[in-house]
Every structure is written in structure tokens, then in C-alpha cells.
Amino acid sequence: MSPGGAGCSNGLLLTVGWLLLAGLRSACGTNVTAVQDPSLAPEGEGENEGENEGEEEAENEAEAESEAQTLPEEDVSNNTAVKEVEFGMCTVTCGVGIREVILTNGCPGGESKCIVRVEECRGPVDCGWGRPISESLDSVRMACTHISPVNRFKYIWKLLRPEQQPVILANDSAILEVRREVRPLVFECDTLDNNEIVASIKFTVYTTSELQMKRSSRPDTDAVLVFVLTIGVIICIFVIFVLIFIIINWGAVKSFWGEKSSSTEIPSELSSVRYKDSTSLDQSPTEIPGTEDDALSEWNE
After folding, report:
1. pLDDT single digits (tens) 80-92
2. For residue range 86-119, what is the model confidence (pLDDT) as tens digits?
3. Measured between alpha carbons, how far is 133 from 236 in angstroms, rounded to an integer?
4. Which H/E stretch holds residue 285?
5. What is the 3-state secondary structure of 168-225?
6. Among 1, 169, 229, 285, which one has the highest count of C-beta atoms within 10 angstroms of its own C-beta?
7. Which helix (H) or strand (E) holds 273?
8. Measured at the alpha carbon of residue 169, what is the angle toward residues 153 and 163, in degrees to the nearest 5?
């Protein structure tokens, strides 16, 4: 065979072998690029595969974070579902006050109830007529409705006049001190929180003569109350001392009451004896004639 014919036959064999190999790979469904060296792959395909892997990793991380966030929320919801909360009484009947938040289930230490926190509570805005915190014959001190801290609220003091617009005073503190005038005055204080009125209270400042008249017309019950309380305390102390004496000297007290009871029994016995003697004397005259008649009848026989 000539050399040219041998080269052609070798090339033909290689071509047939590659075709058979390609057919087998396509028939088995294998990916030819999977067995290839990554360095031999095109640059564009490598970049696309890297981007796809990065996107998959980012999606996996996001899913893990979302699962980690949802689990604590479910735990918190389960914990709060078990706990029961009730509210205490508000410290005020009007205006702004405070109240206790009480936990009735899930308290530490197995307690039946425990205080969780203290929160603000509100009642009706109108508090009606108030009483001054202090007053004398010359001046009066009044206070607005508030809770601590005092500087949290805004206070507006007004002087009310009949059939006229109220006069807003310059004082913006919670305490107002005024002097008594020749006529009674009416003041009103509005407590504001975030420009919202939460409480309103009024005060009447009487004149000096009206105050003296009220004090004189008021019954002086303090002295009577003190006297009654003093007498009651003295009587209670006396009774306690008597009981203590009886307990300590119980033997002497018992013998004394025994002698007294025996002395009362002797006169009763004497009276009963005397009664019997008197009854016997009353019956003797009637019995004597009967005996004499019997004796005479026997003599005659």
C-alpha cells in the first residue's frame, strides 16, 4: 500500500471514531461539557455559571434569614398567647392619672399575680370644683390637675367673669397663688397634653369676711370628737387593767365570790326554817282538841 493511501485510511478511521464517540455520548444523554476541563470552556459560559452560583447562594442566604426571623416571631406569639393581662383601678376619677398593669398568668416564681408596669390612664375632662391646697385670711394657693413630671403638661389659668370672656392669666405653672379681693373670684385651670385638654378644674376664692363667716358657722366638732375619743380610750384602758387584775388574782376573786354566795345562802336557809316553824305553830291549835277528844273517849270506856 502506498503511503498516501495509508494516511487517508488513518484519517478516515479517526473521523469514524469521533463520530461514534459523539453518537454514544448523545445517546446516553451525557453532557459533553461536564467532562471537559473548565479551563477549556469559553469565558462567557464560565462567567454565567459563576453568576448563577452566586445568585443561588444569595437566595439560599435570604431564605435562611427569613426562616430565622419567622421562628422568633412564632415563639413570641406563642409566649404572649399564654399570658393574660388585667388593668388596675385608675388613681383619679377625672383628668389624668396612673394605673397598674397586672399579669395574671406566667408570673415568675409561680406567683398568681404580678405587676408588669405602671401606665397612664385618663378619666373625664371636667373635674368640677376643687379645693385649694392651702388658704389663709389673705391668700389662697391652688393647683391644677397633673401627675409627675409636672413640666410635661401645659397649664392655662383663666379668671372667669359672669357674662364676659374669661381673662387668661400670665401664670403657666401648675400652682397659682392669689390674694383675696373685696369680691369673690372664680378661677379655672386647663391641663393640656400635646395641645389637648386632659383636665379642667375650677376654684372659688372667697373674700375675707365670707371666709370668717363660713368658719364661724361651721360647727366646732373637732373638740367634741377629741373629747369622745379620749373618754373611749380611758374606758378601754380601765377595762383592760380590770381583766388583767382578775386573771392574775383569779384565786382570790374565786374565793371572794364563793364567800359571797355562801353568805347569801345562810339567810335563805334561816328564812326557810322560820317559815317551817311558823307553819307548825299554826297547825298545833287545831291538832290539840283532836287529841283531847281521843283521851276522853278512852277514859269513858
Report:
1. 445 688 898 999 9
2. 898 999 999 999 999 998 888 888 888 888 899 9
3. 37
4. helix 250-300
5. ECCCCCCEEEEECCCCCEEEEEEEEECCEEEEEEEEEECCHHHHHHHHHHCCCHHHHH
6. 169
7. helix 250-300
8. 115
